[in-house]
Amino acid sequence: MSPERLAEYHLLSIITWLPVLGALILIFFFHRERKQAIRIFANAWAILSFLPSLWLLTYDRRLGGIQFIEDVEWIPQIGARYQLGVDGISVVLVLLTTLIGVIAVACSWGFIQERVKEYYVVLLLLQTGILGVFVSMDMFLFYVFWEVMLVPMYFLIGVWGSENRLYAAIKFFIYTLFGSVVMLLAILKLYFIFPDYLKQPDVQQAVLQAARFISGENAPMYRMIESAVQLGAQGRGTFNIMAMQALGTARMGGEPIIPLSLQLWLFAGFFLSFAIKVPMFPFHTWLPDAHTEAPTAGSVILAGILLKLGTYGFVRFNLPILPDASRDPRVVQVMAFLAIMGIVYGALVAMAQRDWKRLVAYSSISHMGMIMLGIFAFNPSSLNGAVLQMINHGISTSALFLIVGVVYERHHTRLINDYRGLSHVMPGFAAVFMIMTMSSIGLPMLNGFIGEFLILRGVFEENRLWAAFAATGIVLGAGYMLWLYQRTMYGEVKEDNRHLPDLYPREWAYFLPLVILAFWIGIYPKPFLSYFERPVAVVVEQVRPGYSQRLLERAEQSDVLPTRAQAADDRGGER
Amino acid sequence: MRGLLFQGLDWRWLVEQAVMFLMPEIVLAVFACMLLVLDIGWRATERRWAAYVALGGIGASAAALAQTYLNLRGHEAVGFYEMYVVDSFAIVFKVIFLLTAALAIALSVKFLDIEREQRGEYYALILFATVGMMFMASGLDLLAIFISFELAALSIYVLVAYFKGDRKSNEGALKYFLLGIFSSGIFLYGVSLLYGVTGETNLRKIAAALAAEQTPGFLAILAMVFIVAGLFFKVAAVPFHMWAPDAYEGAPSSVTAFMSVGSKAAAFAIFARIFVYGLPALRGTTSLENLGWMAVIGAVSALTMTWGNLAAITQANAKRLMAYSSISHAGFLLLGLVAGNQTGYIGLVIYLFVYVFMNLGAWGVIIALRREGIPGDRVEDFNGLIHTNPLMAVLMTIFLISLAGIPPTAGFLGKYFLFAGLIETGNRWLAALAVIAVINTAVSLYYYARFIKAMFMGPVTEPAPLALTPLMRTALVVAAVMVLLVGIYPPPWVDLSRLAAEQLTTVTREVLAGF
């Protein structure tokens, strides 16, 4: 079936709201003491909610743009609509979310023994919150989901976390809420300036032209933007993200419609929210606490999906809506500096950890820094790499947290020194851990390599110094991961480790899809890349108008593919 | 007052006017008087019937109000020599007061049983206070406003001191009474100055007189300062908030619930009425040369939000914590007046509307924690509530999340409009104020989360059942449903608030056009 046809069946709404439905069924039809029944139901329901997301694979990659659009009036007084839609970037992220959702539910089977019913309810609610963020095409709706998801996450850490959970939970909640309320102001500002600008007929023309550019052949997407533009022309506000992108992309006589000074303020508002979520150095301090104290499923969702919301926000809001602020040299330098700080600092601190889970948490900071660097290099290679790396990080870090969860469940300690020689007693586990370590380091044939290579290649084109620093991060990453592997897996078996059982079939079941994906992306990434190549190309074009055109012209002149030297020239020309 | 006192009253005219404008208030006052009489005849065990009679009175009053609304068909009606106006602004506020009174009464019955203070006069006083508030919302003349104001205030002074044997109750009442009288004096002084400057007490005539002058005189500004200070007392804005924590803590919890919502809403009603209708000429802008009440209120609102929040963080007593939280909410509400556009006014009204449900709801759970022999007013008393009474824990969480302004609850919607009003002005100072406000939103989460933490993550304590009656449980469930409903499906409620807000907007726009 075609995306348009599926949208008529409310595919996105089904994907988004199925988990909530499951939560409601749990609340009203299951007694809290029937733990086994609750577990079976939750697992079955998680798989059931994963299945419809597979239909998203019918996303028309040739057409690109936003598809599966649903559009219903919500609060007419302020122009907020229930608008859903996904582009290639969100398709892969939604699929990642639903997959990780299944795994998060599955990995809690034995670990959660108390308040089982509430646990699964919270987990399912969280799932809807996250999915809602990825599929919202209306900023108001987006914001609602963005904040709603904090509440279940707070409970997840605070109720089922380990010793220091209360502190970690409230720190996470307040930190992220602080960022998001500032974003609300930026959203409001955009909302109010939109009709102000759109009242002018020549701006309308420019915005519609930009809309034609971003939507390409995608007629439903263009209609969505057009109707928002018409509302704006009548002096009524809109929260449509794509219309805002059109406003940000539109040019009048080469000048942006939103003046740079205002763009910078708005950028700051969005930046704060997303940077805390990513988290970028120096806004990362909530992460080690939250990741470490959360139950395994919480850490998996936090690291696997929640962090991607930040980078997704940058790609969806900052770059296309505020392109001039995004490529302002001052901003780029600050962003690159923070990203590189995150890469190097995260890696160094990870190396010094004695707590297994904390080490993985800090490695996340380092990897997310790499993704941020890829985003702010603004070329197709780096941005494709960044999006792919979001998926890769989701796979490998989720798996690493699951791995910690496996040993913690058996031995009830997270200290690295409490484990030694596990490869002798748990060979299957050691193999999975090895694969995921390699995936995290970026060994060729595994997913991490593809993402990091694309990012580095793109970053190298822009700035060799950045690339050098980023490469350092990879080396350091290999250092702490291999050292961790060596300390825990090799050597004489520690006496109290001797009786730890190897992976159970249930554990194999949730590691297997991750392992398969890691190899698949590592060996043949094209199917994955093909989903977001077009959307990414559009984003690049939005941030740097004429970029690909210039590359093409150059390619025609020289009859060879553009090289980095030419790209560097190209940048020189821009200055 | 042409010849009213000298030529004798034209009774028919008076009755006509009263029927046209005052039916809801008259009904309520009659029920209140009836309660006082009935109470004498009731035995101690029958006294809780007073609550149901009072609820009946509120219902009848609401019906009368609906009738008035239908008669008006969106127009406004001015009566009693332009002292009294019935317009959509007044009607929406009257709805708010009636809802507050109904919920507060529903929450009081069991509580008063436990305290062994079940008497009809309690409900009569609540009704009288409500009558006063309803008059306040309709006052178009400073004298009418002042008198109705005192009616409401005096009833509440008595209610705060309702526990005669309780020292805290007495202390709180005395503080509240003294400061209340004091602030009334300040307010009245401002009113008299204004009368001296303009020769009028009618708000519209005052506005016209002030607008006629090119630059406002010193006395007019002084009058404005006195009036605004008096009102800051009433809404408990920093630095005039000192009475609030003591009065809120000392008063019976059910009374605190009522006054923290009802009298606050009433104070905001006259705040908006006086400043938007009467003193628009003194509104001023954010530039230094032209400061007016907008700048004063803006500064005070920033101070109030911040101070209320910071003070709330350190409280161990749930009632005191909620008192400071209510102070910080007053700061948020002031933002609507500062913004001075339709969005801001919608924010003010809808925030007050949802505040009824979320704050009374939260207080309702606090009231339910008061059991035989257990004071139940510390944050620790919430420990493990999810195990002992899951329903109440979930409801309380909904109320708290709404108070913190997190979607999809009604509290978020209110905050959204308040912030949007500020941003819409495009003024950078007001944008800065919005930044202060959103930061405060994040801070406020910290102390609301303390309740959540206690309920869900705290150790389980003694499993004494909560003091709940079916009536109370219904009231709390209704409040929670409203909090979610307004948050998830806002259009009808936004329309309701817009009814009230539109009037303020038109008045403001007319004035701004004059400058």
C-alpha geometry of chain A: globular
Low-confidence stretches of chain A: none
What is the alpha-carbon Rg of chain A in Å?
23 Å
The count of β-strands of chain A is 4
- Most extensive interface, residues per chain? A-B, 32 and 32 residues
Largest sheet report of chain B = 2 strands, antiparallel
Overall 3D geometry of chain B?
Answer: globular
Could you tell me the radius of gyration of chain B in angstroms?
22 Å
Instruction: Compute the average pLDDT of chain A.
Output: 89
Instruction: Determine the N-to-C terminus distance of chain A.
Output: 47 Å
The proportion of residues in beta strands of chain A is under 5%
The number of distinct β-strands of chain B equals 2
Notable features of this structure?
heterodimer; A: 575 residues; mainly alpha; two-stranded antiparallel ribbon; two-stranded antiparallel sheet; 26 helices; 4 strands; 3% strand; B: 515 residues; 20 helices; 76% helix
What does this entry show, briefly?
The complex is a heterodimer of chains A (575) and B (515). Chain A is mainly alpha-helical and 575 residues long. Chain A contains 26 helices and four strands.
List the topology elements.
The complex is a heterodimer of chains A (about 575) and B (about 525).
Chain A (H helix, E strand, L loop, with lengths): L2 H6 L2 H19 L5 H16 L16 E9 L4 E7 L1 H19 L9 H20 L3 H10 L1 H11 L4 H34 L2 H15 L3 H15 L7 H9 L1 E2 L2 E2 L3 H18 L8 H8 L2 H26 L1 H4 L2 H23 L4 H20 L4 H32 L10 H4 L1 H15 L5 H16 L1 H26 L15 H19 L2 H18 L3 H12 L5 H11 L1
Antiparallel strand pairs in A: 1-2, 3-4
Chain B lengths: L10 H11 L1 H19 L7 H24 L4 E3 L4 E3 L1 H28 L4 H19 L3 H19 L6 H32 L4 H10 L5 H18 L7 H8 L2 H26 L14 H21 L4 H22 L2 H28 L15 H4 L1 H14 L6 H15 L3 H30 L12 H19 L2 H24 L1
Antiparallel strand pairs in B: 1-2
